[in-house]
Amino acid sequence: MSFSPIPGVGDRESDRQEMEMKVTPSIRKRCENCKMIRRKGVLRIICKTNPRHKMRQG
């Protein structure tokens, strides 16, 4: 068993993909529940209904 900084998270590829967000040169809302937010000069999309919609521009 390998060390993980987050308890309960293994080394499986699917575990890592769940925590990451998409980083793209242009972003847009994917559903009506997505919200566009600017934090520290970076545009982000967050979605409470579908966390897979998380995106960051850059």
Task: Give your account of this protein's structure.
With 58 residues, this protein is α+β, with helices and mostly antiparallel strands. The protein has one helix and four strands; from the N terminus they run H-E-E-E-E. A four-stranded mixed sheet has the order 1-4-3-2, with no helix packed on it. Strand 3 (42-46) and strand 4 (55-57) form a beta hairpin. It is globular and about 25 Å long. The model has no long low-confidence stretch (mean pLDDT 80).
List keywords for this structure.
58 residues, alpha+beta, four-stranded mixed sheet, 4 strands, 28% strand, globular
List the helices and strands and how they pair.
Blueprint: H1 13-19, E1 22-24, E2 35-39, E3 42-46, E4 55-57
Parallel strand pairs: 1-4
Antiparallel strand pairs: 2-3, 3-4
